[in-house]
Design brief:
With 138 residues, this protein is an alpha+beta fold. The protein has five helices and six strands, in the order H-H-E-H-H-E-E-E-E-E-H. A hairpin with a 5-residue loop joins strand 4 and strand 5. The chain is globular and about 45 Å long. Pfam families: FUR. Its cofactor is Zn(2+). InterPro entries: FUR (IPR002481), WH-like_DNA-bd_sf (IPR036388), WH_DNA-bd_sf (IPR036390).
Length: 138
Amino acid sequence: MIKELENKLKQKDIRPTAMRLLVLEALTSQEAAISLSDLEKAFEKSDRVTLFRTLKTFQENGLVHSIDDGNGAPKYALCEEGCECNIERDLHVHFHCRVCSETFCLPKYKIPEINLPTNLKSEEANLVVKGVCGKCTG
């Protein structure tokens, strides 16, 4: 498992430090996106700044993407295999459960291309569907 995580980091040109491996392992084990606060709770003895920098490094290198689900703090989820975080190709819908507050990536549901006026250049887009997840309705 550690070798797989190291390889995943190396593929994205990220040096595999002990903390980065631990954070990647935590993200890999999550079904839902995770906030910095949630990650901090999982790593009680870790420095918040180190965790934040790790997430930012992952984001800058296309390993994770951030999600603004309207709760005031971004959440982070692993990018799907082959994702380049390209606004024209890789953007997908997210689902936020208003009961349990979990946010899920729905990579099979792509955000449709929006043709902006020529004087505008898009840099990011975010589509969050809010409702109740299957875990909370059942």
